[in-house]
């Protein structure tokens, strides 16, 4: 069993910052990638940022230069630093861990950005 525990969501005004954390525990032999997805009301879940085992990162165009993904390999934890938040960043943010051939999801944490 693998557990992902997310934290750090909340309500913030536009222009503010939040930091999300996701700690993975359980039977994980090797993590290939960790990332964050989000789902806004009435929309499909979308990829926000991903970091692979080599350290290479990939961001959605809408968050480039505002969000930073990082990971602590020793703690199997991934972070998402979100700056200059906009109302359109509002949604439920899900942590995702890929340990081939498996993919795991967190329970989601709500991020609300008020204008």
Write the layout of secondary structure elements.
Elements: E1 2-7, E2 10-13, E3 18-26, E4 33-39, E5 46-52, E6 57-59, E7 67-72, E8 77-82, E9 91-99, E10 102-105, E11 109-114
Parallel strand pairs: 2-11
Antiparallel strand pairs: 1-3, 3-8, 4-5, 4-9, 5-6, 7-8, 9-10, 9-11
Task: Write a concise keyword list for the protein shown above.
single chain, 115 residues, mainly beta
Could you explain how this protein is built, in words?
The strands form two sheets. Strands 2, 4, 5, 6, 9, 10 and 11 form a seven-stranded mixed sheet that branches. The chain has a four-stranded antiparallel sheet with strand order 1-3-8-7, with no helix packed on it. The protein is globular. It is 0% helix and 58% strand. The mean pLDDT is 95. The chain is mostly beta strands and 115 residues long. The chain has strands at residues 2-7, 10-13, 18-26, 33-39, 46-52, 57-59, 67-72, 77-82, 91-99, 102-105, 109-114. It contains no helices and eleven strands. The chain starts with a strand and ends with a strand.
């Amino acid at each position: 069993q693998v557990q992902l525990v997310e934290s750090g969501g909340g309500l913030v005004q536009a222009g503010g910052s939040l930091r999300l954390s996701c700690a993975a525990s359980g039977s994980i032999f090797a993590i290939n990638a960790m990332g964050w997805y989000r789902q806004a009301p009435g929309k499909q879940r979308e990829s926000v940022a991903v970091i692979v085992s080599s350290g290479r990162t990939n961001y959605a165009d809408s968050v480039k230069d505002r969000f930073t993904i990082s990971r602590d390999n020793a703690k199997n934890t991934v972070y998402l630093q979100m700056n200059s938040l906009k109302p359109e960043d509002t949604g439920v943010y899900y942590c995702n861990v890929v340990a081939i051939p498996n993919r795991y999801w967190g329970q989601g944490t709500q991020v609300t950005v008020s204008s």
